[in-house]
Amino acid sequence: MLEEELEIALKVIVVGNGGVGKTSMVQRYCKGIYTKDYKKTIGVDFLERQIELDGEDIRIMLWDTAGQEEFDAITKAYYRGAQACVLTFSTTDRASFEAIREWKVKVENECSEIPTVLVQNKIDLMDKAVVSFDEAEALAQSLGCRLIRTSVKEDVNVASVFRYLANKCHQQMKQQYNAATPITQPTISAFSPTFQSKATNNTIQLTRPSVKRKPLQKRCGIF
Ligand SMILES: Nc1nc2c(ncn2[C@@H]2O[C@H](COP(=O)(O)OP(=O)(O)OP(=O)(O)O)[C@@H](O)[C@H]2O)c(=O)[nH]1
């Protein structure tokens, strides 16, 4: 593959109990459609969407996993290599809220720590809520991740979930790249006559050599 063809691609997994709206969320985001029929996911489904972030194209590859425990053995094989995760529960399903920690552990067992967002779906059904606002906030805080409330049905906040994760991963990639780029550190010494400092007000500014960098997609893209 030519270097120019490389791009940033993110593997995102969507997990949570059956019926919380994972398939609906992925379909809404990638195809712009919503159906009220429920057809349980068998194993894993895959869809993708391309977005632009800071002037760069990012391909978000969404793995929609089955919520039923019977598929655990199959789905966990698809967790591997995921760079971000959506933990989903439903406003009207208490058990799905209580299962979130377990989902997080399952993901961590395969992927260690990856950018994660907690999604409370079906907020159009707030009048039938079985999880309070505070409980959801407290869970997000204890898991150390952002809580985003969505209604896939009404198309509220769905795009924000994936944009938030893409942004987080993009930032991480940039940091990793910067950390991997060696900075020439001049020796600061009274006996180092060749060292040139930019001294202003007794402050020595160490300047990074101006290296012409390649666009990020060429540096980080692995797909
Ligand atoms: N009211 C409401 N219903 C929703 C919303 N999102 C999804 N649903 C409905 O919830 C049901 C289950 O949605 P799915 O997307 O199939 O759920 P899932 O999490 O993929 O389920 P599994 O495949 O069993 O893991 C469907 O009837 C959807 O139409 C929402 O935001 N509001």
TrEMBL record:
Family matches, as Gene3D superfamilies: P-loop containing nucleotide triphosphate hydrolases
Lipid bilayer topology: Lipid-anchor
GO biological process: anatomical structure morphogenesis; protein transport; system development
A GO term, aspect molecular function: G protein activity
Catalytic class of the enzyme: hydrolase
Its EC number(s): 3.6.5.2
Cofactors: Mg(2+)
Catalyzed reactions per annotation: GTP + H2O = GDP + phosphate + H(+)
Keyword entries, A-Z: Cell membrane, Cytoplasm, Cytoplasmic vesicle, Developmental protein, Endosome, GTP-binding, Hydrolase, Lipoprotein, Magnesium, Membrane, Metal-binding, Methylation, Nucleotide-binding, Phosphoprotein, Prenylation, Protein transport, Transport
Quaternary context: Interacts with SUFU.
Family classification: Belongs to the small GTPase superfamily. Rab family.
Entry protein name: Ras-related protein Rab-23
Organism of origin: Aedes aegypti (Yellowfever mosquito)
